[in-house]
């Protein structure tokens, strides 16, 4: 059911663009794929919430919150699109007290990665590490050396099949600001040197918070392509050996900042925004999938 719902949503946007048609006749706009976003009241606080990740066989949502004064990972159980109870701080060494830990991502097989500060020759820089699950606890693993260095690297996104890892970095030779960089996993589990995702995906501004909807489909936020204002969410699909020109997801974009997407099992879209109506700073919002438009087949 999860893959079926995701496939319908992705195909509707990626194949048909902003307007869904049949036999040349418009059926509905891509904006009609989701209902108006509403805040996730049980998960939000007056501090920033962002970086949602569907985990535990899609039975819970992990996300980053700065409610304690530093970024840490919290977990909320869920059923469908509803969370059950308030969020709890995740136990384990990944959430080291007083240290910034954020942006959890997981493949379908359970490989997990996150972002934390790593020490280099002169100072620490944000980098990407493996995250090891131990029951309900999450423990810090090892740094991904080919990704990290004396520059900013964060916002990891692993593909569903676990063979690709996209990060946000201001490493040298980018398109400007922070760019999306991709590494492929080779035989034996090692990661290749990351490559810039191209100047089609990356702009002269900042690209942040990538998320794999499918192995060939990325959602991410950018402030370099115009749009409604601030950071907007865009979609790009890998076709014929290249990533396509990004298309805005105007169903959730506003004149404020939108970023940090994750798709729920039924195709509903979870994201972060600092728009009015939340509890403060960045809050998590949910745009429910319109079942009357897409149906369940």
Describe how the helices and strands are arranged:
Elements: H1 2-16, E1 19-22, E2 25-29, E3 38-39, E4 49-55, E5 60-65, E6 72-79, E7 82-83, E8 88-89, E9 101-106, E10 112-119, E11 124-134, E12 137-143, E13 153-158, E14 164-169, E15 179-184, E16 195-196, E17 207-214, E18 217-222, E19 232-239, E20 242-243, E21 247-248, E22 258-263, E23 269-273, E24 283-287, H2 291-294
Antiparallel strand pairs: 1-2, 3-24, 4-5, 5-6, 6-7, 6-8, 9-10, 10-11, 11-12, 13-14, 14-15, 15-16, 17-18, 18-19, 19-20, 19-21, 22-23, 23-24
CATH class: Mainly Beta
Give the overall average pLDDT.
87
- Annotation field: number of helices: 2
**Succession of helices and strands:** HEEEEEEEEEEEEEEEEEEEEEEEEH
CATH superfamily: TolB, C-terminal domain
Number of structural units classed as domains: 1
Account of the 3D structure:
The strands form 6 sheets. Strands 4, 5, 6, 7 and 8 form a 5-stranded antiparallel sheet that branches. Residues 14-28 have low confidence and may be disordered. The radius of gyration is 18 Å and the shape is globular. β19 and β20 form a beta hairpin. The N and C termini lie close together (9 Å). The chain has helices at residues 2-16, 291-294; strands at residues 19-22, 25-29, 38-39, 49-55, 60-65, 72-79, 82-83, 88-89, 101-106, 112-119, 124-134, 137-143, 153-158, 164-169, 179-184, 195-196, 207-214, 217-222, 232-239, 242-243, 247-248, 258-263, 269-273, 283-287. The protein has 297 residues and is mainly beta. The chain is built from 2 helices and 24 strands. The protein has one domain (39-262): Neuraminidase (6 Propeller), CATH 2.120.10.30.
């Amino acid at each position: 059911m999860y893959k079926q719902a995701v496939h319908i949503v992705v195909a509707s946007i990626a194949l048909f663009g902003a307007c869904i048609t049949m036999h040349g006749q418009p059926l509905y706009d891509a904006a009609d794929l989701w209902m108006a976003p509403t805040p996730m009241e049980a998960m939000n606080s007056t501090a920033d919430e962002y970086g949602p990740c569907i985990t535990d066989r899609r039975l819970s949502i992990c996300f980053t919150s700065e409610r304690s004064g530093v970024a840490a990972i919290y977990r909320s159980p869920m059923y469908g699109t509803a969370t059950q109870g308030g969020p709890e701080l995740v136990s384990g060494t990944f959430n080291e007290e007083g240290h910034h830990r954020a942006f959890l991502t997981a493949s379908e097989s359970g490989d997990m990665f996150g972002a934390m500060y790593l020490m280099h020759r002169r100072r620490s820089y944000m980098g990407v590490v493996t995250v090891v699950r131990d029951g309900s606890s999450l423990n810090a693993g090892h740094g991904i050396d080919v990704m990290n260095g004396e520059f900013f690297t964060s916002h990891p996104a692993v593909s569903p099949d676990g063979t690709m890892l996209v990060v946000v970095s201001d490493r040298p030779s980018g398109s400007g600001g922070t760019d999306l960089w991709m590494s492929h996993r080779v035989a034996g589990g090692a990661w290749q040197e990351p490559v810039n995702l191209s100047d089609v995906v990356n702009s002269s501004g900042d690209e942040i918070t990538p998320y794999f909807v499918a192995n060939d489909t990325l959602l991410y936020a950018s402030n370099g392509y115009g749009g409604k204002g601030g950071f907007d969410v865009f979609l790009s699909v890998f076709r014929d050996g290249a990533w396509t020109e990004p298309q805005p997801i105007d169903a959730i974009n506003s004149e404020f900042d939108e970023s940090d997407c994750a798709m729920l099992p039924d195709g509903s879209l979870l994201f972060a925004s600092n728009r009015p109506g939340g509890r403060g700073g960045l809050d998590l919002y949910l745009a429910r999938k319109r079942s009357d438009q897409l149906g369940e087949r």
